[in-house]
């Protein structure tokens, strides 16, 4: 199967810091892939390069057969990528339903003119949008909470609402930035099932950033490990678990065998 | 843990605070100036100012110390009042020996007489302490009432004061004979005050009863629905009828005041799109008002400056178009600016337009400081016959009402659309909005464009209404006024704009003799709003949609 996303040699620098260094990564259509790595490894920067928030200095990002690097975030979204955020970023003073309806923005066509005159296009689109928003709300398990202000929802519900908002634009690829951050074990298990359900039900391709190894190992079909902006390993969960470089990156050099003394010092001072 | 002050010490300090505030209002001259307007009987606005400052201090104290016993609180209230009164009373008491006027020009004999209740210094001093102690105790007693009654009494009291303050309004009406029995020399008489007070309490009580009935009916859902559907239309109909007949009751002067309020409502609705919906802080909003007015002036004036001699109706689209274009042109350079930076740049833009208007370079075209005179009035013709020429404030009232209607309609419908949601999303979080597929360039420029064209409309009507325009009419203060009225009414709320305009444009217009203290009162009002009611007087309601959608798909 052709990859839905193909990143080739992506490099993003901030001054002297190379946040993402010559990264290659592909996601097969309909699969769940993860990017993991210690804090500051460049995972979120990579996300931001895909979604158009940053323009990578080098490399190509090919999504669904078209190059998307250098496009604005709204243009990337219109092509079928949508995302959630590590620290939830809902429109907190809008209702849950309105949040989802904003997500549908790229699928709607009516202009200010239609809105003032209430043309048939306006009515049709608004009805569809409302119906779809209610459906998504039920889909993520928040039925009945649509008229609540987003900021008044409990934490777990906010995470789900953010996913519902991301789904409203009918994306082909969904990027989830630490979807289980701050959740207890039970909520985490529910989220794992929910993400699998998303893929099976909607046929989405999903790219995760995640810290929780249990989540990553349970649901990913493919994992890329980043450290200091570089991809240090890639493969199936089982391979990643055994990879000495990954263990190094996570547990420190002392944990892996066959290391020289000065390499360990270099890591400690870095 | 935070160390808590003992209540008695707190009462002592609050008493001092109340005294200082009352002294301040006295020494800036507010009390004396305000005393020229009687509110209820012999009670003047000056007294009310002192009373309210004492009241606010006592009230906040009582809120903080709810856990104390009532007897103690009553004693503490009396202490606060006595200390406040003592401090204030020192002014006239010492004033008989020491002349404060060498530096405090407002420490006048008239003020002293007022603070002594016209008695001799010693008796007046004691009287002032007693009166403020008793007042504080009464406030404490009101505070002890159950929640509903306390709110009703406090609100009814405030309403009585406002009605008394504005009683000139009723005298100006064409049907003033109805109100005469309740009016004193320049305020309400005592009967009038009691009537207004009782009516207000009755109104709140009815509101409470209605809420209870609704809650009961909500149990039986269908009945509640049936009840709800009818009155909404009835209310809208009554409102329209009321607005149509209003100027006939109010007469010419009050209609003029309402017209000024109305022009600010149109501007407020426009700025509300920019600031309230889209969250773009625009401080140069007056620029578009000026552009609308000057376009109308140049195109229609019969003076030598007039170039086109158009009618009002022909010039109106151009005025709006010029403002709209300017709005979009201003939008382009500030696309990437946020918050404070945007505010400063737009502020500068407003000033540029005003300075251009007074400049010598443009004098041959727009008259410089002398402005443009003889701007024509709108005329409605039908088949060559003149049906109506807008001359009086009452005529213009209807024109402005139509303008408000259109602005309201457009603002409301835009909010309920994809564009409105995109604006609000941008207000909440610009980056996320962009990541949701919203093209920020397009929606920012539409927000600026709509805001500017509303302002252009208001400017065009204004130019024709007053007949001549000068650069001085378009100063920064207008931008600040419009922004403040949005904040006072409730950011993003459409009815809030109307309430805000009435409070910040209508009231000062009616209290013209106190214009000196306008900015002071503005500042106080804004601070009080931010502390007590940050969401505004009439905040935007949360839209209920999910259940509604469920019903639709249900059948």
Name the descriptors:
heterodimer; A: 270 residues; alpha/beta; 6-stranded mixed beta sheet; 4-stranded antiparallel beta sheet; disordered C terminus; B: 555 residues; mainly alpha; ABC transporter involved in vitamin B12 uptake, BtuC; 2 domains; two-stranded antiparallel ribbon; 22 helices; 3% strand
According to DSSP, the number of beta strands of chain A is 10
Count the domains of chain B. Answer: 2
Indicate the percent of residues in helices of chain A: 40-55%
Quote the beta fraction of chain A: 15-25%
State the total count of DSSP E strands of chain B: 4
Shape of chain B: globular
- Class from helix and strand fractions of chain A: alpha/beta
Distance between the termini of chain A: 41 Å
Oligomer: heterodimer
Largest sheet of chain B: 2 strands, antiparallel
CATH architecture level-2 label of the largest domain in chain B: Orthogonal Bundle
Distance between the termini of chain B: 59 Å
- Report Rg of chain A: 20 Å
For the biggest sheet of chain A, the summary is: 6 strands, mixed
Going across the biggest sheet of chain B, name each strand in turn: 1-2
What is the element string of chain B, with H for helices and E for strands? Answer: HHEEHHHHHHHHHHHHEEHHHHHHHH
- Radius of gyration of chain B over alpha carbons? 27 Å
Mean pLDDT of chain B: 88
| Morphology call of chain A | globular
Largest interface, per-chain counts?
A-B, 49 and 37 residues
Q: Number of helix segments of chain B?
A: 22
Explained architecture:
The complex is a heterodimer of chains A (270) and B (555). Chain A has 270 residues and is α/β, with parallel strands linked by helices. Chain A contains 11 helices and 10 strands. In chain A, strand 7 (173-177), helix 7 (185-202) and strand 8 (205-209) form a beta-alpha-beta unit. In chain A, helix 3 (96-103) crosses helix 5 (120-139), helix 3 (96-103) runs parallel beside helix 6 (155-167) and helix 5 packs across helix 6 (155-167). The longest helix of chain A is centred in the middle third of the chain and has 20 residues, at 120-139. Chain B has 2 domains: 7-211; 251-553, ABC transporter involved in vitamin B12 uptake, BtuC (Orthogonal Bundle), CATH 1.10.3470. Chain B has 22 helices and 4 strands. Chain B has a two-stranded antiparallel sheet. In chain B, strands 3-4 form a two-stranded antiparallel ribbon. In chain B, strand 3 (379-382) and strand 4 form a beta hairpin. The model of chain B is unreliable at 550-555 (pLDDT under 50). Classes of the chains: A alpha/beta (270), B mainly alpha (555). The interface between A and B is large, with 49 and 37 residues.
């Amino acid at each position: 199967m052709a990859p839905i996303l193909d990143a080739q040699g992506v490099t993003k620098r901030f001054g002297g810091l190379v946040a993402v260094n010559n990264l290659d990564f592909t996601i097969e259509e309909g699969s769940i892939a993860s990017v993991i790595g210690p804090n500051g490894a460049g995972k979120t920067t990579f996300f931001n390069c895909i979604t158009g928030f940053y323009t990578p200095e080098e490399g190509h990002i090919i999504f669904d057969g078209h190059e998307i690097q250098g496009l604005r975030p709204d243009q990337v979204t219109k092509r079928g990528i949508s995302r959630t955020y590590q620290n939830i970023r809902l429109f907190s003073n809008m209702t849950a339903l309105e949040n989802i309806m904003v997500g549908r923005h790229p699928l709607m066509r009516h202009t200010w003119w239609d809105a003032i005159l209430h043309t048939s296009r306006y009515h049709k689109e608004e009805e569809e949008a409302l119906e779809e928003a209610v459906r998504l709300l039920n889909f993520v398990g928040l039925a009945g909470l649509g008229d609540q202000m987003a900021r008044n929802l409990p934490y777990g519900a906010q995470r789900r609402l953010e996913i519902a908002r991301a789904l409203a634009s009918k994306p082909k690829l969904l990027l989830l930035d630490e979807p289980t951050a701050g959740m207890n074990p039970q909520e985490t298990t529910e989220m794992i099932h929910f993400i699998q359900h998303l893929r099976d039900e909607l046929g989405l391709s999903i790219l995760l950033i995640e810290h929780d190894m249990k989540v990553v190992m349970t649901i990913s079909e493919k994992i890329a490990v980043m450290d200091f902006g570089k991809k240090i390993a890639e493969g199936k969960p089982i391979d990643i678990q055994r990879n000495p470089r990954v263990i190094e990156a996570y547990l420190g050099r002392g944990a892996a065998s066959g290391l020289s003394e000065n390499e360990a010092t270099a890591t400690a001072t870095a | 843990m935070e160390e808590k002050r003992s209540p008695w010490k707190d009462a002592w300090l609050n008493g001092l605070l109340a005294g200082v505030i009352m002294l301040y209002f006295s020494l800036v001259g507010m009390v004396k100036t305000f005393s020229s307007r009687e509110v209820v009987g012999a009670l003047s606005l000056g007294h009310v100012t002192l009373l309210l400052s004492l009241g606010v201090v006592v009230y906040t104290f009582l809120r903080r110390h709810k856990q104390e016993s009532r007897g103690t609180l009553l004693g503490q209230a009396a202490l606060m009042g006595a200390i406040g009164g003592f401090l204030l009373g020192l002014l006239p008491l010492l004033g008989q020996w020491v002349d404060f006027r060498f530096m405090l020009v407002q420490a006048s004999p008239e003020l002293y007489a007022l603070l002594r209740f016209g008695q001799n210094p010693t008796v007046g001093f004691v009287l002032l302490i007693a009166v403020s102690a008793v007042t504080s105790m009464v406030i404490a007693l009101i505070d002890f009432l159950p929640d509903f009654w306390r709110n009703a009494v406090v609100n009814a009291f405030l309403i009585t004061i406002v009605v008394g303050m504005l009683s000139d309004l009723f005298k100006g009406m064409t049907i003033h004979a109805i109100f005469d029995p309740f009016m004193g020399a320049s305020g309400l008489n005592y009967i009038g005050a009691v009537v207004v007070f009782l009516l207000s309490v009755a109104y709140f009580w009815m509101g409470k009863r209605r809420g209870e009935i609704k809650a009961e009916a909500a149990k039986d859902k269908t009945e509640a629905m049936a009840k709800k559907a009818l009155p909404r239309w009835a209310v809208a109909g009554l409102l329209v009828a009321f607005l149509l007949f209003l100027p006939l009751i109010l007469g010419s002067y009050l209609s003029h005041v309402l017209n000024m309020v109305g022009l600010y409502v149109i501007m407020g609705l426009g700025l509300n799109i920019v600031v309230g919906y889209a969250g773009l802080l625009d401080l140069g909003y007056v620029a578009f008002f000026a552009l609308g007015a000057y376009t109308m002036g140049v195109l229609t004036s019969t003076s030598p400056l007039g170039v086109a001699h158009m009618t009002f109706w022909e010039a109106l689209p151009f005025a709006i178009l010029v403002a709209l274009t300017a709005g979009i042109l201003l939008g382009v350079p500030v696309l990437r600016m946020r918050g404070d930076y945007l505010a400063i740049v737009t502020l500068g833009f407003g000033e540029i337009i005003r300075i251009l208007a007074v400049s010598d370079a443009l004098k041959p075209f727009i008259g410089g400081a002398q402005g443009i005179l003889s701007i024509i009035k709108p005329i409605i013709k039908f088949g060559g016959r003149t049906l109506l020429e807008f001359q009086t404030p009452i005529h213009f009232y209807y024109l402005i009402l139509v303008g408000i209607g259109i602005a309201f309609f457009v603002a409301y419908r835009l909010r309920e659309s994809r564009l409105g949601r995109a604006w609000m999303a941008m207000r909440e979080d610009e980056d996320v909005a962009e990541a949701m597929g919203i093209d920020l360039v397009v929606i920012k420029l539409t927000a600026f464009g709509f805001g500017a064209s509303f302002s252009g409309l208001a400017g065009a009507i204004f130019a024709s209404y007053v007949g001549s325009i000068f650069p001085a009419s378009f100063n920064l203060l207008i931008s600040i006024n419009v922004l403040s009225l949005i904040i006072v009414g409730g950011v993003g709320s459409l009815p809030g704009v109307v309430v805000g305009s009435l409070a910040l444009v209508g009231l000062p217009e009616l209290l013209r003799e106190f214009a000196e203290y306008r900015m002071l009162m503005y500042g106080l009002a804004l601070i009080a709003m931010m502390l007590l009611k940050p969401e505004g007087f009439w905040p935007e309601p949360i839209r209920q949609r999910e259940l509604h959608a469920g019903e639709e798909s249900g059948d």
